[in-house]
Request: fold
Amino acid sequence: MPDNTVTGRRISTSVLVIGTGGSGLRAAIELSERGVDVLAVGKRPKNDAHTSLAAGGINAALATMDAEDSWQQHAADTIQESYFLANPHTAEIVTKNAGRGIQDLERWGMPFAREADGRISQRYFGAHKYRRTAFAGDYTGLEIQRTLVARAAQLEVPILDSVYITRILVRDNVVFGAYGFDLRDGSRVTIIADAVIIAAGGHNRIWRRTSSRRDENTGDSFKLAVDAGGRLRDAELVQFHPSGILEPENAAGTLISEAARGEGGVLRNVLGERFMANYDPERMELSTRDRVALAAYTEIKEGRGTAKGGVLLDISHLPRETIMTRLPRVYQTMLELQVLDVTTTAIEIAPTAHYSMGGVWVRPDDHSTDVVGMYAIGEASSGLHGANRLGGNSLIELLVFGRIVGQAAAEYSAGITSQNRSQEAIDAAEREVTDTLASDGEENVRALQRDIRNTMTDFGGVVRDEAGLLEGLRELDELDDRQKRIGVHPDVAGFSGLAHAFDLRASLMAARATLACALERRESRGAHNRSDYPDMDPALQVNLVWSADGSIAHEQIPPVPAEIAALMENVSQAGKLLE
Amino acid sequence: MSSATIDQKPVVPEEIKSFTVTLIIRRFNPEVDDEPHWQDFDVQMYPTDRVLDALHKIKWEQDGSLTFRRSCAHGVCGSDAMRINGRNRLACKTLMKDLDITKPIYVEAIKGLPLEKDLIVDMEPFFDSFKAVQPFLMNSVTPEKGKERIQTVAQRARFDDTTKCILCAACTSSCPVFWTDGQYFGPAAIVNAHRFIFDSRDENAAVRLDILNDKEGVWRCRTTFNCTEACPRGIQVTQAIAEVKQAIMRGKA
Reply:
């Protein structure tokens, strides 16, 4: 058994990057190319970040497929899809720099799919006006991750694997490093750094059905930022994917591609009714992501779902040939996971938490936060997606802001003349880990994590209302109380139990911010549906900013620049109003 | 609430039954054992469970000291390659229903790399060979401002198969040459060299071919095809090695 003596390492670097997914690696590459000392820390092996699960594609208005396309149009599509909650300045920066992001990847060997004449191939994806989504088969995210890993390896970027960061170290609102422990042997790690970049994902793992993997996206980014003095923006805005599978338990939330509906799949409730007729009779199953998710949710909630709490997605009437050639991954996935033949049997699905559109509050220009020297990028950050994310925008955001934040952190590090550290802050971080490790209460961490997910599913899901949100907050109070009585028992196999305890606290904070902001947003907009406020409220076309003391500020969104606004008028509004 | 109805009743999936399966795992703890030994465990599994689920069940419910690598559990990260019933596979992609569960399932670490503990081997020699082939794009030409490098569909397709490698080491550790000659680069390193040698944008094919023309390079390959059979991603490994051999003989990709 591990004894209680604290052993550890003390490391110094110029810029520390927390997270080794797409955004973290991109930032680390930028720093390394500029000759800045950088260290990337991850709680997983570096080849295995969440970015690798992204399938669809990556957007940039290269205008090589459709000459009329422009970054302004891409920005217009992004803002419109966000229900006007995207920060226009953020959207402008991402879309203007998207071409550069693609070129960076291409320069490092990304195997993009090509057109006959050799151009990078681009296709339609979601509500884009033009073809601007580049891809590499079904594995765009995986190939991006591998391209970035290869480039980081070439530059010999130091990566510290299997380390869990518990605190960002701050003195007088200025960052000076981070504290954590080694997941394998529990030894402590103190990292002294000029700047810290948080790139550790969002919080969609706090719902029962999620496309996130176990122990990822637990809200740890949010907790680190808030404990350090940061705030959260739009935590209530979470994208739900309409079709995640329910079983087996360990693969629950695995997504069934929306192409299944595109090819003619139909949705039925347990009574055999094609329920989309009641929600969008014109487009039926081809309706938009948020609308289909809402419809499925309503059927299940009103008792017309299956015993396991799903609805049925049926493609068995399609010709076998169509399924085999157009939907091979759906066929294969279901055969592998459930031994289910989709050519004869319907698939049980339910709405599944998929993407945190909100996140740590950052400035649009350089993704700096409320804390000097602290930055956030990727799903951990906020500002681009608003109330509904445009498909393919999350991957390009990583590339664009990874580079910009790398540059900003490099300049900040080069510009400071001295750094004040605080032994007290380090001691407090050390004590927190030691105390947590010594917890010997009767509450089980895994059980509490499950309870949070149940609470969020019951009251913070696709449709919310005041009574439910208040009940959810009350349950969180209870869980918070029980959290104080946990037991943590590391074994010879490692300290993952300790990490789960920290994940649990992070999830509690993320859950609280989500429910509190959902309560405050007394309207329905995009992915946020309030049954007691079914309409959009123009007065709430603001971002909600949550602070550690529980207060919520309404942040005004700057006006959309004229050149972008003009292009939004050109896009047909008719289809959009339905969403 | 009115609803559109249709004649057809939906087919609701049936309940699936569980069964008991025996795993015989090759254990090794360097702190107490002189030699590895086999230990058996009975676990209750469903046909759709994978070998990784069985290992988790054992670890969580029976013996917390059982040690293995795992991460994504989706066949993407490549961390749980092991020898299952004598064949190299990913534990997270091997379904119970695809194994003969009337007999025990034998699970052991992959061969040819130093055994560290239970199912974990030291991967350093493997990654050293991988790094030696310079697995990144090398190109000194800057494309026209604002443009990407052009690559035809055929040129892109030329190296498609070898982009799929996840560095799990299933191929390299299934190779009898690698077992007896630890200096051999091994199939995975050659596959990753192939990935760049045949990428039309790369300019350093000659350097990589030179590296692989070494006596511990491609010529050690005896075309046993073990690697192709072992690859969980279905890469035609032996063919890729053959293509690299031909390129060396021709002096170009």
Observations:
- Chain A has a mean pLDDT of 91.
- Chain A has 16 helices and 22 strands.
